[in-house]
Amino acid sequence: MPKEEGRPQNPVNTARTGKKIRAMLDASLIHNESDGRYPPDMTKQLLAIDHDQDFADFVGAVARDIGFSAEVTTDTRQFRQLYEQMLPDVVALEFVMPDVDGFEHLRWLANRQCRAQVLVWCRIAPRIAECAGAMAAHQGLRPVWLLEKPIHVAKLRALLASHLMKTGRQTRRRRRHR
Q1: Please, are residues 139 and 106 in contact by the beta-carbon 8 Å criterion?
Q2: Looking at CB atoms within 10 Å, which of 11, 43, 55, 144 has the fewest?
Q3: Torsions phi, psi for 92 (to 5 deg)
């Protein structure tokens, strides 16, 4: 049988094959909100800020131990830059900081339409942190997790693990809508 120009030698059902290929591609594509900043390994990301570097490192270590990628800082400017670069899944912050209080951090996150789970801890004013949680919900943030310092490792691990369990470790992988 002579080969026709522009046609494959071994014809295949392109409609069926096309559906299979689209399904495989859809299953493997990363949903890109706008600029492709998501990490290729799809690990959940946590960003933490606390005025005490040791405590920030503690939160980061607990998060990494259960499978998060974590960045920690004590500086508000760096926190905001990291947030813009990472678009983290969890934002963890101390409510009472020397330069910027928790209300201001929450307003800043709300203004950026933050979709992350927010975790707030406080040592000296747990009632104020509760008010912050109500304010955050009013401004469109997800319900805020509140912890009181000192934070027990088991409680922090349980909260972070529940986020992984609820959302799945790879929520950044989504099917495209046609």
Answers
A1: yes
A2: 11
A3: -115, 130
